């Protein structure tokens, strides 16, 4: 039952490493050399890869929710519904969806005319900060495209929530305490990762304008762009009993 899960974890790890490498090294270099500039093309490339990896990870988390749903709710059909070919196709669909979404939004964002300078009050290039520099007529066009693009994201969110509800209901019907414990051990790490990913992303893009300030924008951006990739390996590593024992010995010894 665990082979597809670890295949998806491999993809999640690759996305996490690539995502954090898109923003953090440049910001660290800027801090070390007291340099605050990025080229126009460099900003476009950074935005593209960030959107690509962020969107692909969101799609992959929806796929992983389906994986947990089948493993817990339909275990006898697991090998049929999640064979090796199906897993490859679903992972590829997540990567391709991220690529197409990033290509669309990056091309649309950098087709804007910038009328309000060229200073971004953020440590990496992101769409909300670029929109603040654009002209009003161009701004409305991008807002409309973002609204259309949010519909699939909302659909994935509803799918994840429904999957979790069905998983939780199935776990409550497990008669043995050992079976429930095993099901919870499969369910809780993914729930923690999805909750962290979605909550930090929503706090960044749905916060009220009254609370917006350069310092607050910086803190929120770190929360949703750096914290999830950094914490994901820790959450899943804690499932490993040998690792937990080693940490416990280190803490108590």
From TrEMBL:
Task: Show the stretches that span the lipid bilayer.
Answer: 47-66, 87-107, 142-165, 186-206, 218-236
The places in or outside the cell where this protein is found are:
Cell membrane
- G-protein coupled receptors family 1 profile domain location is 1-236
Q: What main location does UniProt list?
A: membrane
A GO-annotated cellular component: plasma membrane
Q: What UniProt keywords apply to this chain's record, in alphabetical order?
A: Cell membrane, G-protein coupled receptor, Membrane, Olfaction, Receptor, Sensory transduction, Signal, Transducer, Transmembrane, Transmembrane helix
| InterPro entries reported for this sequence | GPCR_Rhodpsn, GPCR_Rhodpsn_7TM, Olfact_rcpt, Olfactory_GPCR
- Could you say which residues form the signal peptide? 1-20
Concerning CDD domains, the annotation shows: 7tmA_OR14-like
Record flagged with keyword Cell membrane: yes
Topological type in the membrane: Multi-pass membrane protein
What GO MF annotations does this protein's record show? Answer: G protein-coupled receptor activity; olfactory receptor activity
Q: Would the keyword Membrane be found if you checked this record's keyword annotation?
A: yes
Gene3D superfamilies from the UniProt entry:
Rhodopsin 7-helix transmembrane proteins
PROSITE patterns xrefs: G_PROTEIN_RECEP_F1_1, G_PROTEIN_RECEP_F1_2
Role summary: Odorant receptor.
* Family as reported in the entry's similarity comment: Belongs to the G-protein coupled receptor 1 family.
Its name, as the record gives it, is Olfactory receptor
Source organism of this protein record: Opisthocomus hoazin
């Amino acid at each position: 039952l665990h082979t597809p899960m670890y295949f998806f974890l491999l993809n999640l790890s690759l996305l996490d490493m690539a995502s954090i490498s898109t923003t953090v090294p440049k910001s660290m270099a800027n801090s070390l050399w007291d340099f605050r500039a990025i080229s126009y093309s460099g900003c476009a490339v950074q935005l593209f890869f960030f959107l690509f990896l962020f969107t692909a990870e969101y799609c992959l988390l929806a796929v992983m929710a389906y994986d947990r749903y089948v493993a817990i709710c339909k275990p006898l059909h697991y090998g049929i519904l999640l064979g090796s070919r199906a897993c490859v196709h679903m992972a590829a669909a997540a990567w391709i969806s991220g690529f197409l979404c990033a290509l669309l939004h990056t091309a649309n964002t950098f087709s804007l005319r910038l009328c309000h300078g060229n200073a971004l009050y953020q440590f990496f290039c992101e769409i909300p900060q670029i929109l603040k520099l654009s002209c009003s007529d161009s701004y409305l066009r991008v807002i409309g495209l973002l609204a259309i693009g949010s519909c699939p994201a909302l659909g994935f969110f509803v799918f994840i929530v429904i999957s979790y509800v069905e998983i939780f209901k199935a776990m409550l019907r497990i008669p043995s305490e050992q079976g429930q414990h095993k099901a919870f051990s499969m369910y809780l790490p993914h729930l923690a990762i999805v909750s962290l990913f979605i909550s930090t992303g929503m706090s960044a893009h749905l916060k009220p304008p009254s609370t917006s300030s350069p310092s607050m924008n910086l803190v929120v951006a770190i929360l949703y762009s750096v914290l999830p990739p950094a914490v994901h390996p820790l959450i899943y590593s804690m499932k490993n009993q040998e690792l937990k024992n080693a940490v416990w010995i280190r803490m108590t010894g």
